[in-house]
Structure formats: C-alpha cells, structure tokens
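Standup notes, structure subgroup. Blocker cleared on the zinc ion input:
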Amino acid sequence: MDQIFDIPAERPWSGIVRQGQTIRIEDSFGQQAIDTIFYAAHDFGERYSSQETLKANGRAYIETGAKVMSSEGRLMLTVTADTSGRHDTCAGCCSCESNTVRFGHDTRYLHACRENFILELSRHGMGKRDIVPNINFFMNVPISPNGAMTIDDGISAPGDHVELLAAMDVLCVISNCPQINNPCNGFDPTPIRVVIRDGIGG
Amino acid sequence: MHIHRTPDQIAADRARYEDHQRRGLTFAPKALPDPSPLPAPPPDPARVLGTEVIAGGWYWTCTLTAGQVIRVEGAAGTSVSLAVWAARDASERLNLPDTVKVQWTTELRKGRVLLSDMGRVLLSITEDSSGAHDALTGGSSAADVGQGVRNCRDNMVLAAGKLGLDRRDIPAVLTLFAPVRVDAGGHFGWRGSLLSGRA
Ligand SMILES: [Zn+2]
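Run returned:
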C-alpha cells in the first residue's frame, strides 16, 4: 500500500522510510525547492552528510544514481529516478537570520526553512544543532569553475519527481521551502506530495 | 489549490533578487583585496599569544576572543580542516552553505567571511596567500584513508568530544589549502595549479 502525504505550501513534514522502500518526492506545481534531511531511524546521531555525499559522487549536484551518504560514511539512500535533472546540496536551507544578511532587515520576520526544521525536529527529540546542510530537491544552484554560485530559476515542471531507495531505515524530514526572496520557489511557494512504497518504481 | 502571490509581488521580489545577484556576482568580486604575500611577514613576537605545531594527521583546538587573529600555516602539500563554534553557545556554529550562498561564491579568500547559522560573522579572512580552499567537499573519513589511519572525521569527533560536544555538533568543515573546484560539467576536481604559489 502506498503511503501518500500531501504537504501544504510552506509547511514541514517527517516520516520513516524503511530499508527497501522507495520515497518519491513530487514537485506537484513545479519550481518548488524541497529542503530535505535524512537521519538513521535507529540512531539520529548518524545523519545526512552533504560533504560525504559530494565526495562519494564526485559531482556538485544530486542526480539519478547519486548515493546519499551519512555522517558515518554509510549509504543511506540511492536516487533511482529523477524527471527533473538537477538538485542542490551546497546551498543549505533558508533562515530568518541569513535572509536578513542577504536581503535586508525587512525580511527578518518572513517564514523560513530553519523555522520548519526546528519545529519538526522537536517532535523527534532533536533541535537546532541537528540541522545539517541539507538536500534541496528541485533547487537550481549552478556553481561555476571560478567558484561563483547563484540560485537560478528552478527547472522543474509540475509533477516532476525524484525517487530514492532506502538502504537503511531513515527518518526523512522535509521543509517545503517558504522562501520568497529568491527564485527557488518561483516566488510563489506551492504544495508538494510525498509517496512511500515498497520496492523500486511502481 | 494554493494561494498565489500577485504578479506585482512576484515582479518586485524578482527585481530585488536580480539586483542582489548583480551586486554579489559582478560587483563584489571586483572589490576583493589582492592575495597576501608569500612568504608571510613574520608576526611581531611581542603580539604572539601562542604557537602550536600540530602533528600531521592530528587535531587541535583553541578559543579566540573577538579581535584576536589566528594564522594557519600549512607545510606544502598539507590540508587543514576547520570547524568553528561560537564560544558562548556551541549550537551556533560554522555554516558553510550560508557562507557561500550569502557571498555568491564557493571560493573563500582574503576579504571573505565565515558565517554562523545565525547570520553572524565568526571569522573574517584578513590575510590569505593561498585562496585555494574547499568549502564544499569536507575532509577525509575512514572510508577514504582506511582503518588504522587517522582521518579528519575522527579528529573532529575527538576534538568535539574534548570540548563537551559530540558528533551531532560537528558542522560541515572548511578545508584550507585544498583547491577543489567544480568544472563546467559539474564534476569536482583537484586544481593543483591554484597551489603552485605555495610550492
Ligand atoms: Zn527554504
């Protein structure tokens, strides 16, 4: 039986994906960044590591076939399908604090992913210190050979999705990004859908 | 299905973002200072508070108060990974994604800053003869170097442990003197030529 979760715009979500199950993350309306962190379900001290992941894949972006690695250097999930083509894991999540530095003090009281993560992690006995550099599914952050980095318009169309096969039991924590100060959500955050099912594909 | 923002709101936010983008990508790099000379002038001995020679493969920690300067000098071929915590609240710590995002570059060099997750500057890079640092791919782990050989990850666990912290507190680390860059195809590579000034 598929487990289907509809996540409203700007809201967090979390759920368990068991080893051998696939999680599909769907950008239902297109151009929506989906900030995601994985924790080993039986030991939250082991969690997603962007640096281990970048090193293991040798690539600056998350794509089909990419290994999603933990802080202990173990495989957490593998990207088994992707209709979009580019996902980021270098730019982290938005926060009120970084928005203020980036865009000015009038953005101080706009909702942000870090708010979502702290609230959702608190449900699992975790806190701010457990927020690690995350994956931004459907976020387009090209990095140039000269080091320049920018957040460009998302390339995902409505219904685009990515699928990951879990190599261990993981807790998946998502912030459906509320950012309106850059193009990562088309300046208009939208709902998303998560589907968890046994095995690959379907 | 969802509340759409008005076209006027979207256009205004886009215009503001593109203005920031132009400043960050085009103007800011032109204002950066030149790299520091190599070899570095020796510091005034009267002002040196302490010196430590860190054995290869090992770790070391220190506390800096605001206004103090730490100079990290690597022997040729040595990389040094750096984690930073705010002394008064270790939950505030180096945040490399914010550091590179806010400054529109992954290339941290003289004139750039290291930001915490709370939007504050932890350290400013006031001198830098290298400019060849890696803000993306981190340090070594046991999987890279094999069991029985010291590695960056274990060093960080040990360093954090002795500060009363644990592995949950280890941020993504900045690796100094590691010229890792992204090529046009999105692959990471070791651009050794960036280090040539130090040989
Ligand atoms: Zn966000």
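Discussed briefly. The longest helix of chain A spans residues 113-122.
Next: hand off to the docking folks.
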